[in-house]
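ok trying this again, last paste got cut off
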Amino acid sequence: MPTLRPAIQIARKDLLRRFRDRTAILTAVILPFALAWIFSLTLAGVDAQTFEATYAVVDDDGGELAHALSETLAGVDGATVRAADEAEAGRQVEDGEIDAVFHLPAGFTDAVQSGRGATLDVTLSRGSLVAGLVADAIARSFAARLDAVSVAVASASGSAPMPPGGAEELAARAQMVPAAAEIADEGAEDRVSSTTTFFAIGMAVFFLFFAVEFGVRGLLEEREDGTLARLLVAPVPASAVLIGKAIASLAVGLVSTSLLVLATSLLLEADWGDPFGVALLVLAGVVAAVAVTALVSTFATTAAQAGAYASIVAVVGGLLGGTFFPIADAPGLFAAIRFLSPQGWLMEGFRSLASGEGLSGAVTAIAGTLVIAAVCAFFAWRRAWTMVAR
């Protein structure tokens, strides 16, 4: 093809120029691994952090429900349960030696089993926010379970005369009934993996739009130093100049993003998901980044101005697309506006792949990214054509 060969030569010339001034090396090789290394230091030890809490049970009841509460607390990973008297437990929770005190008053079990209701007192330490929240949640869950037992006893005793000891027997049977629904909480390791993967994805998507910005900016640089005019008088089609600039940007974008995916996988142990889906989404993202940065750069009159415009769009698009925080979880309009930017589509696609959905989960994101890329590329080509045609 008469246009492709000179376009490749122009792209090669641009890449060699960037390698000589170390721009391409810095952008495509050093920065991806440097960013991944910094994030690995930032997130180091997060997966080693475990939940630890010490709870005390003051049992003035002596019934079976006190034993049931102790078993419930002991079943919490990282929780240590000890018995204590009321005075000692009060002093320890005040001094921060324990995180919460559960006090079962005398007659607690009998009151619950007879349907009369009872009060479970919980005292939280001021210095243990997370452990206190966990203790409060356990107490509420335990109380809700006992409420169900009381309702069962009250309903049965109201519908028919209860024989002696029948209320206690009914309460014991009600306690044996399994919960109608249980909450399966993902483990801490899974949550950390999701967190590191999210930061890795956000870092890659955000950085991508800086890695490809020198395409049209290079065109402006050459126009400023006069080399563009000499290039256009040569037997080279004007379209080859534009295509060559785009190929150079695509090459740097693909290399830098691929290395960033590799670096975060090695240093952060980020799980990006299906490799084929990741490759297609990276390709679509690089094309979109080149198209978007090229379009905004055509509105500039100098290379410095083009770099500023591209940086502004990269930052705003990153914020809009949720590269810094999971905007997909935001309510209403905030969750929808992210799809106005290619970063939003890329974050959605990468999150789908990381969650194990496979390529089918990223098809919509790939399509959305390519639609934005096509629209921006069309207008960027028309505007850039006027720069080389005049």
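PB: full thing came through this time. The first strand starts at residue 53 and ends at 59.
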